[in-house]
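dumping this here before i forget
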Amino acid sequence: MRLLLVFLLLAMPCFADDTKVPLIFSGGHETDGRDRGRPVILIASALKVPPEVFRETFTHVHPAPPGQNGPTDAEARANKKALMDGLGKYGVTDERLNEVSNRYRYRRDRGEMWPTHDAAGYATVSNGVVTGFVITDGGFGYSSPPTVSVKEMPGVQTAATLSFSTDFEKNGAVASVALSK
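structure:
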């Protein structure tokens, strides 16, 4: 029995050398050039429509020119009609469109950003080698995969994967991080 116990203890993986090393997340707020700074992937996901549907629908919207204090009432009505004509058939309501539009409206030229929350996590390192990643907080508001580095391990190459949702607090979250080549 004693020999069996010694064998089992020796056969078990040893986690005593594992270290949790913080991950550093940066960037991840780039937008597609076609979208003129709009976080279309976040907007479309929150509306539960494909990004291509939102893009096509938005081609019928005519925003107010720079320096103007917003569209006139007639322009605003025409823009809302264009959006509802394109998105309504996908189940998007006027109330939801307003909620999503207000959430992701911002002025980058004023240094503004849509709401974001940084992700957090750590790499498991054993004997100087990364053996895995744990996301403790996926964050939200990422429109593109952020750059992820392992603190004090500059040679480690990673790739982040995002998930999207109709829930604002989960939309554009880091779902996973993996080693890349």
